[in-house]
Amino acid sequence: MFLAFQTLAFAAGSSFNHHDVNPLIRVIPPALVRFFAGPYVAGDSLSAAMQAAVDVWRQRGVHATLDLLAEDIHSEDAVQRNLDTYLAMVDAVHADDRFGSDAAKPTLSLKPSSYTTDPLDRGGAAETSRAALFQIADRAKEKGVGLTIDMEGRDWTDFTLDVLSDLHRAGYTDVGAVLQTRLNRTEHDLDRLPPGCRVRLVIGIYGEPSTVATTDKRQMKERLLTYSRTLLQRGHYVELGTHDERFVRRFVEEVVPAAGVGLEAFELQMLYGVPRNKLLGEMVGGGIKGRLYIPFALSWPMAVAYLRRRLDEYPTMMFLVLKNLLLRR
Is residue 200 annotated as part of the catalytic site, yes or no? Predict the structure, then answer.
């Protein structure tokens, strides 16, 4: 196991161009990737994800948002599979009576890149993504299921915000957005949001050049506080997504009172399996709404492929995984 840790750490720490593939990450055995993924991925089926959502609600009073790991699409069959899966997710959430009330049921998060073989970050037009998002939003509205459009790399930002605005104008007002504070443009993108929409505010995981984003983690997190106050004051429902305990507490103790809002105006979000979601339990015990972001795949090979891509995009993730494993002991 020590040798395996060395291999993973070396692979994660190697320096590669953004457009290159890190060959060391590619040779990590799937079983080892799955070992590390275990705490962070709910399973290889929709039923496993729903059970995870039920468990966190019943055991801890924490809500969930479900996300299908389905990116880097190369076939129309995969596009259709992802669309069909999300429609099935909406139906499953609507029909599940284990949560006790509609308000306790999960929301769904999705990525526009899951519905096209011609993605914007590879110079494409993503023509099928818009139609898929409208189809899922229509089913979600019919069934009373909350939906959030995740934010991907900078090539997708304008597309995502435009579709979000079009959805709200068409009456799909329960569709939420995600903004990343690392991007310098986000301060101005606050003005593009539909009035009162839900906003998940995160620093973002996508590596971006210094010409368009800050590379200073402290600044990214300070922006969480600055932008969240602006959003609250404008009447948006804020979903703060961070595991940094200092900034969670500063948001609750400084930003919320300064914005003059109550507990009904926001929630705290963290990732499934990360040890610091114990802090989420503490906050929930104090009357604050909490939610875990729960990813799942349709097969473990798909989950492993997702995790390899994340290591390519964010090499230091492996060090965080190792740290979290040690904290779990």
Answer: yes
Q: Give the mean pLDDT of the chain.
A: 86
Task: Compute the distance between CA of residue 33 and CA of residue 17 in angstroms, rounded to an integer.
Answer: 22
Give 102 or 274, the one with higher predicted confidence. 102
309 is catalytic: no
- Catalytic site residue from 154, 182, 198, 200: 200
Domains plus CATH for the chain? 42-296 (3.20.20.220)
Side-chain-side CA neighbours of residue 59 (13 Å): 9
Helices (H) and strands (E) in the chain, counts: 14, 8
What residue type is 144 in one-letter code? Answer: G
Q: Which of 44, 67, 150, 189 is catalytic?
A: 150
Confidence check: pLDDT of 324 > 70: no
Query: 75-79, 265-269, 293-297, 325-329: which has the minimum mean pLDDT?
Result: 325-329
